[in-house]
Amino acid sequence: AIEGNKPAPDNKWEEITSAGDSAIKKWIKDQMEYRSCTVVLVGNKTADRKWINYEIVESWKAGMGVVGIRIHGLKNKDKYISEKGDNPFDYITYGDTGKKLSAIVECYNPAGGNSKERYDWISKHLSNAVEEAIEIRRDN
């Protein structure tokens, strides 16, 4: 969690999604309010998720920084080690240019040979990645 912003628990997300697309869009908009950057945790299925892409596009349109942090090689709460997925920014174009957002937005691959080292990298570098994302957005 960044600054106390925790992901929606599974049961809350199921409640939101069962209310339909407009409820999901409202929830995403509410989560973005008063924020300056969206951090996308990039796993093996992230690039295939409709609402992740929607959140990235809406964040960019709102002038927010956007940054990706790859989470492959990390153990989750169930001790499962995640696999590498596609960069979601490769599937989103920037404005009318047709240029991929991945040409502008960073998607970091945390260094480390094991889960602990990668979590340590994220802990050490996340705030700088967020600040850089805000600057990148300001310049683009």
From TrEMBL:
SUPFAM superfamilies reported for this sequence: Hypothetical protein MTH538
Domain Thoeris protein ThsB TIR-like: 9-75
InterPro entries in UniProt: ThsB__TIR-like_domain, ThsB_TIR-like_sf
Protein name as it appears in the record: Thoeris protein ThsB TIR-like domain-containing protein
